[in-house]
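Table S4 entry, Large ribosomal subunit protein bL9.
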Amino acid sequence: MKLILTHDVDRLGEAGDVVTVKDGYGRNYLLPRGYAQLWTKGAQKQIDQMAEARRKRAINDLEAAHALRDAISEANIQIKRSAGDNGRLFGAVKPRDIAHAATEQLGKTVDRRWVTLAKPIKSLGHYTATVKLHDDVLATMAIEVQPAPKK
């Protein structure tokens, strides 16, 4: 079965790719969830136009990713969380929290899906996270988890 992916699918392809999959996988998984649509000649023309626009945007995106990488690498993102006397957090700091704090402190958008942690942050201290800004651009973000003021 020949399909056009409408979303990124792990180990299969990215949105806009034309893939050939087994009938059952396409009919029972990809199509009902909206991850793909059936391939047609008209849809292929539309995909070619989208790919051309994506190539033009990629150059601008790459320059913006380099600028954001430099800003992230220089910054020390501070997150305040409630913690016990032993420094253990009440809850954990997640990539969503890191992305939100980075967006506020840098003034530039950082998406939560770009942030990868080696392990969950569950105590106060200094940590690092990897931020994938583009296929070719990775940034290392310094994170400092501080105790929130007690009320």
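The mean pLDDT is 89.
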